[in-house]
Amino acid sequence: MTTQDSVPGKGASQIVADARTTTPEITVGQARKELDQGHVSLLLDVREPAEWEKAHIPGAVLAPRGMLEWYADPTTPYAKPEITTKRDAYIIVACASGGRSMLAAQTLQSMGYTHVVSMAGGFNEWSKQGFPIEGIQER
Predict the structure, then answer these.
(1) Rounded-to-integer distance, Cα 93 and Cα 117, Å
(2) pLDDT of residue 4
(3) What count of other Cβ atoms lies within 10 Å of the Cβ of residue 36?
(4) Which one, of 84, 107, 105, 110, lies nearest residue 24 by Cα?
(5) Over the stretch 1-42, which tens digit does the pLDDT of each residue have?
(6) Residues 6 or more apart in contact with residue 127 via CB below 8 angstroms
(7) Hey, which residues does 62 pair with through a beta bridge?
(8) What is the mean predicted confidence (pLDDT) over 74-93?
(9) Is residue 111 over pLDDT 60?
(10) Which domains does the chain have, with CATH numbers?
(11) Sign of CA dihedral 26, 28, 33, 35
(12) What positions does the domain Rhodanese occupy (predicted)?
């Protein structure tokens, strides 16, 4: 018996796979094109602050995954207007590799945000493609 066999319920990979069945996903190339053309109202980075400080995509707004629901809910004292005012706008959600952003995009959809997509491959793929970054690891 493997460890996975002894754990009841779904694992993280299955939860992300399930989210992919209902939540749109775009490539980093598509995201770059949409950003360059000015079609994106918000690029939301759901990584942790330490990841963000090392490097991030220019113009992205930080909202760590663990605080997303509070930042995106206008009725909480933690609400971020740069998020809450974008309920019907085009939002791209990014993380390191695409898992957290998929779950975050699904969460935003369930909160009533209407045009949310996850960026497949996340910041790692963005950086690998040589697209612009800023922060400590800035090129």
Answers:
(1) 6
(2) 54
(3) 10
(4) 105
(5) 455 566 688 888 988 898 999 999 999 999 999 999 999 999
(6) 55, 133, 137
(7) 45
(8) 97
(9) yes
(10) 25-128 (3.40.250.10)
(11) positive
(12) 42-135
